Amino acid sequence: MPWLRAVGSRIPFKPLKEAFNSSAYILGYGTIAVENARKGGQDSNLMATIMAEAEKGETHVDDMDVRTESTSLIFAGSGTTADTMTFLSWAVVSRPQLRAALEEEVAKLHDNFTDADLEQLPLLNAVIHETLRLYCAVPGSLPRVVPESGATLNGYFVPQGTTVSTQAYTMHRDENLWPNALE
User: Fold this and answer.
1) Of 62-66, 117-121, 165-169, which gets the smallest average pLDDT?
2) Predicted structure pTM score
3) Which among 25, 37, 24 is positioned nearest to 66, based on CA atoms?
4) Integer Cα distance of 53 and 55 in angstroms
């Protein structure tokens, strides 16, 4: 109903005006990301990298593409990251021994640690992977297309080209697939 958006965006009541103009506000964040990427140099962030790659070859990526993509990353990533961090925090603080062991491992880092240093911490990485396995922030299905020869799944033949799907919640809690996992 585009007419509703056109009318609603002109109502002189700030919360409604903002709601009906949400696309412009969101795109504004993308614009800020592009501007920051241009100021910070080519290696400053993901947006700078995307823009630098686009300028190298015969691609059709312009500033609007980058603004739109950055907006998607900002909004898609913020909620899922917040959810994941909430579950990770809960999982750690609800297990005092795990919390103590994790604090001990992280305390051994030097003051100027890098991402590479964090990647070498086995317990931290195990906690992150288990959090992602058990508390997936995007619990949608995982569709796949059956290959040309078809496939037999659990004794049932599925013809080629058929879309099959499973969802992460059940699969990530299947003791046959994760025999050493603890919930």
Assistant:
1) 62-66
2) 0.60
3) 37
4) 5
